[in-house]
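INPUT
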Amino acid sequence: MPKKHEALGTHILLEFHGCPPDVIRNSDRVEKLFLKAAEISKAHIVKTVFHHFNPHGVSGVVVISESHFAVHTWPEHKFVAIDLFSCSEDLKMEKAIDFLKKELAPKAVSTLRLDRGVL
Amino acid sequence: MPKKHEALGTHILLEFHGCPPDVIRNSDRVEKLFLKAAEISKAHIVKTVFHHFNPHGVSGVVVISESHFAVHTWPEHKFVAIDLFSCSEDLKMEKAIDFLKKELAPKAVSTLRLDRGVL
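OUTPUT
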């Protein structure tokens, strides 16, 4: 797969629809889930920033040595936008995605995979 | 433009090729540029995380009330990947992009605009 090797990074954009509002409005819980997802992917965590909006929603980023995981939740719409950006082919992204699907329990998922930095 | 109003967020993915390596390997400088870009867009800055890799490259995220700006640089490839994610239509994204183009001086730019959270 030559394309894979020409790109500096892989960016997976996930959209989770129909998530339970109680889960995705809880900043601590969302932060723990994303830390765990980063761990499962074998990423090296550098720092996390999670922010709880009033009255709704969570925004958070886990900066990893291999790039970043980001999440934004809209509990009022049962919607979660996720970005998994990695410059390493070694990360177990599928395992992280399976974990997030299990925990955030979306009724529908859309996924877009993009190469970043095709030289 | 009904599509715009149906989406919860706008995600602009920029790829800057041919940037001066000295500029994009400097973590302090890249952080300052992204803070300034967030300011120019009229975003409300919540927190920033910037990380300098050894020996190359910078990864950083500016978490804003309206979502996030992220940047990853590869000085050895003169390449910068940028994500501007906003859930507000009020942000002056074009002004922020013009500023980043001016300061990071890419020789080629590719831009992808995606709606996030189309309900």
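end of record. The helical segments of chain B are 2-6, 21-24, 27-40, 93-104.
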